[in-house]
Amino acid sequence: MKKLYTLAILLICFNVKVNSQCAPSSENEPVYKITFQSTWNATEHTSIPNGAHWSDLVIISHNSPNQFIEIGENASLGIKNMAELGDNTALIDEVSNAVIAGNAHFGFQNSFVPNNANASLELEQNFCLDFPYITIVSMIAPSPDWFIAVNSIDIRDYPQEESTPIAIDVFAYDAGTDNGTDYDSPNSPNAPVGISMINGYPFNGNKIGTLTIEYLTSLLSTPEFDSKNKIKISPNPATDNITISSANTINTIQIYNILGSIVKDITLEKKSSVSINIADLSKGIYLVKTKNNNGGINTKKLIIK
């Protein structure tokens, strides 16, 4: 079965089980630099429509291939709405259900800034190797139902050693849910057909971007380093207040909701423990990401009830 290889972006290790971090086999979380450079242009892609841009990216980490996209198979409601409307609501719901079932580790959403045909992104983040398959999607906008995607790229395929970045060509795909043939075609729903790569007009089979993946380091290389970087959150689950503590001085704390939005961003000075009021946050699953004075990054799931 042909894979969709396209795009990767912000990847944060999001815990599946309430009382666990990554399983022991994933304690040495590798850190990669992820860079995406759009190459959407009128010469290779027939034309550039007015207002050309990308929808918010959805990034998913999961434990088996083809959980959310499979070429030749019909698109889910979440993929359909993403590809036609740039609406990720249903897709995030699908990812949330997979997280609850223990089949995915996170579902994250991020925006291009600035957002245009020439957009680029560069980020560094750690991966949970127990959920090594990365799937990412974003609507090509405007379009009938076209999108870019990475389907089940296995981060373990990228050597954990410092080397020249590995480049992956990014291509356009058709969700198979609309009959439109041009960027600005009017809405024309059809009985769903399988997801397919767009080899003809307007992309002409040409790539629309380039992704590079470069291994940087391992966050938790030794038991001693592991114990110094780990953070504790108590209580967890929580309702009103939490205390975050670490053996190291914590420099920054960021709390993300499941859509990838930062809901709290805190900068500290020489503190290894801090109390945070969370009464203003809605019930649900959140990700707490800290950076310490040694540059170590740690992530842990927070449940607010």
Describe what you observe in this structure.
- The structure is a single chain.
- The chain is mainly beta.
- The chain folds into 2 domains: 24-217, Immunoglobulin-like; 222-304, Immunoglobulin-like (Sandwich).
- The protein contains 3 helices and 16 strands.
- Strands 2, 3, 4, 6, 7, 9 and 10 form a 7-stranded antiparallel β-sheet that branches.
- A hairpin with a 5-residue loop joins strand 13 and strand 14.
- The N and C termini lie far apart (42 Å).
Defining key terms:
mainly beta; 16 strands; 5-stranded antiparallel β-sheet; Immunoglobulin-like; 305 residues
Structural class: mainly beta
How many helices? The count is 3
Overall tally of structural domains = 2
- Shape annotation: globular
CATH topology descriptor of the largest domain: Immunoglobulin-like
CA-to-CA gap between the ends?
Answer: 42 Å
Chain oligomer state: single chain
**What's the overall average pLDDT, rounded?**
80
* Quantity of strands, as a count: 16
Ranges where pLDDT stays below 50 over 5 or more residues in a row are 5-27, 219-228
Provide the β-strand percentage band.
35-45%
Reading the helices and strands in chain order gives EEEHHEEEEEEEEHEEEEE
CATH class of the largest domain: Mainly Beta
| Helix-residue proportion | under 10%
